[in-house]
Amino acid sequence: MNKIIKVLIAAVCMITAVSLLGESVSAAAAAAPWSKTEDGKFVNGNGDVIEGATMKGIDVSKWNGDIDWKTVATTDVDYAIIRCGYGDNYVYQDDAYWEQNVKGCEENNIPFGVYIYSYAETVQQAQSEAAHVLRLIEGHTLNFPIYLDVEDSVQAKLPKSTLTQIINTFVNAIHNQGYEVGIYANLNWWTNYIDASIANNQSWFKWVAQYNNIGTTYEGVYQMWQCTSTGKVDGIKGNVDLNFWFGAVRTRSYNARSIKLTTPAVQPVKKVKVTAPKRATIKSLKRGKKKAKITIKKVKGAKGYQIQYSRKRSFKGKKSKYSKTRTRTIKKLKSKKTYYFRVRAYKLNGKKKVYSKKWSKVKKVKVK
């Protein structure tokens, strides 16, 4: 009898252990980093509940490549913030995957918002960036705010007063069209670069980036936290940024252009006309064996340079080369011959090149 009792006790203990192990594995699976638990709560990188988080999102751009949005829609991702482009209102600065990503969200019922990466150093550029966004979102219903991504090194060098003017110019231009608008920045920028008048203005949405497993330590009011740049989501190859939303849950039926304006809306900012770059200068011209190396001084705003060369000072029979860099070696020249060089810079208006109004001064070199 004692032996039978011992066997029964051992069996019960084994069953209990297996059951507890199963529950433990199940709990661990439910608490996978950055996932949603069975009861609808979100957990951080340590598997602990993120208090106040209501939705899980991603932010994407051309760097995420070709996204399978149909697959993304089957995951626990609730929304997306899509980059529409960067900088001034030029077509060539539209994000290459903007239209494709918007279509993917619209066709798969995924709520989305927009961000633009800012390079603005002046109020005029901020106006152009606002126009850039407004041009691209026309005809689309946004469900989350339009964000200005402020983090570039050129802006870090600006006086705080200038950066404040830039941000205010952008957010007001977007706000005056009835859209929800906000600012994206990392914790360092929110703490040290962005003025308190902006950080404390509750008219604007705040999106804080701080990568860790716990949560942002930003002490101000914010609605979204970017927690990691190495998230994994089915339907997206490689890493993707993950975010958590702390406001009311939004669906595709929510219209982010719902602001009730107390003043008349301003007219959309006009598209910026592309001005010709300044005259280029040949910095140096060095000879080589049947070749010549040309170096051009940097022209602000230029996207590339046209190099012309000829054995005639009149440039009769000239040849041209295009370069996106300021140094270029011209090869297959004739030995012991003198060549004349001149250059001009260009900007882009869509795919069309807009050149300097004048060529540089001519320089010559006798190749070896």
Written overview of the protein:
The chain has helices spanning 2-30, 69-72, 98-107, 123-137, 153-156, 160-175, 187-192, 196-199, and strands at 55-60, 79-86, 112-117, 146-149, 181-186, 205-209, 224-231, 240-245, 282-288, 291-296, 304-310, 319-323, 327-330, 338-349, 352-355, 363-366. The chain is an alpha/beta fold and 368 residues long. The strands form three sheets. It has an eight-stranded mixed β-barrel with strand order 1-2-3-4-5-6-7-8. Strands 11, 12, 14, 15 and 16 form a five-stranded antiparallel sheet that branches. The protein has a three-stranded antiparallel sheet with strand order 9-10-13, with no helix packed on it. Helix 4 runs parallel beside helix 6 (160-175). The model is unreliable at 15-30 and 263-271 (pLDDT under 50).
List keywords for this structure.
alpha/beta; single chain; 27% strand; 368 residues; 8 helices; eight-stranded mixed barrel; 16 strands
Poorly predicted parts: 15-30, 263-271
Main sheet strand line-up? 1-2-3-4-5-6-7-8
| Number of H/I helices | 8
Structural class: alpha/beta
Estimated helix fraction? 10-25%
Major β-sheet, in short? 8 strands, mixed, barrel
Short recap of the structure:
Helices cover 24% and strands 27% of the residues.
Strand-helix topology:
Blueprint: H1 2-30, E1 55-60, H2 69-72, E2 79-86, H3 98-107, E3 112-117, H4 123-137, E4 146-149, H5 153-156, H6 160-175, E5 181-186, H7 187-192, H8 196-199, E6 205-209, E7 224-231, E8 240-245, E9 282-288, E10 291-296, E11 304-310, E12 319-323, E13 327-330, E14 338-349, E15 352-355, E16 363-366
Parallel strand pairs: 1-2, 2-3, 3-4, 4-5, 5-6, 6-7
Antiparallel strand pairs: 1-8, 7-8, 9-10, 10-13, 11-12, 11-14, 14-15, 14-16
Helix pairs in contact: 4-6
